[in-house]
Amino acid sequence: MSKAGRLSAQGLSDKAVWQLVREAARGAGIEGWERFSEHSLRAGLAPAAGEAGADLAQVMRQTPHRSAEVALGYLRPADLWRNNPTQGIWAAGKPGEADRA
Fold first, then answer.
1. InterPro entries from the xrefs (predicted)?
2. With contact defined as beta carbons under 8 Å apart, do 75 and 56 qualify?
3. What is the DSSP string of 31-98?
4. 9, 11, 22, 71: which sits with the fewest CB atoms below 10 Å from its CB?
């Protein structure tokens, strides 16, 4: 959108997104709003999408990460306990517990 309010076929520039994110954070009264940037959107979307059940490929299409290793760095905190094999072991009883009985 232009300064005059007209829609354009071009996407927003990095600077425009940066300004919008900072203005939104400041308007919401978020402490430290001056540290927010366009990267804040990507950094927040990936773990939120992971917590909502999105898989790595879906997150990479949206963010757009090119490296699975980098994208996993954003997902890992959200995905740490999902489908964790250790959880099943502890749910069934502590390992070796039956041997000591």
1. DNA_brk_join_enz, Integrase-like_cat_sf, Integrase_catalytic
2. yes
3. TTGGG--HHHHHHHHHHHHHHTT--HHHHHHHS--S-HHHHHHHHHHHHSSTT-HHHHHHHH--TTHH
4. 9
52-68 per-position pLDDT tens digit:
888 888 888 888 888 99
The encoded tokens of residue 56 equal 């790595």
CA angle, residues 31, 33, 24, in degrees to nearest 5: 115
Q: How many domains does the chain have?
A: 1
Residue 41 is encoded by which pair of tokens? 């959107």
Rg (CA), the chain: 21
What is the pLDDT, as a whole number, of residue 1?
A: 64
Tens-digit pLDDT profile for residues 4-42: 777 777 777 888 888 999 999 999 999 999 998 888 888
Backbone φ and ψ for 97, nearest 5 degrees, come out as -65, -40
In a domain, 91, yes or no: no
Q: In this structure, is the dihedral angle defined by the CA atoms of residues 29, 35, 38 and 42, taken in order, positive or negative? A: negative
Q: Which pair of structure tokens corresponds to residue 50?
A: 């992971």
